[in-house]
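[Meeting: bench + compute handoff]

Bench side (C.D.) handed over the final construct sequence. Compute side (W.E.) agreed to return the predicted structure before the next meeting so the bench team could plan truncations. Sequence as handed over:
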Amino acid sequence: MFTGSASVVKFHDNCHCTIVPVFRGQRFELSDHAREWDRLYREYAQGHSGDQLRLFRRALADHGHLPAP
């Protein structure tokens, strides 16, 4: 589910995402935490349609990032 009524700005419910503007000439780089979360998602959850959120949350919990739901 998503929070937000505008078609351009929608976030996953309760995930605390934010918009990070990147202007011409700038380069966006993930934070160290986000880079690790991306790695965990790709390794443990990507490609498991319908089960991605559960697997990602479990990987986060197993690696000390968030409590399991």
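W.E. noted at the follow-up: The longest strand covers residues 2-3. C.D. will use this when planning the next construct.
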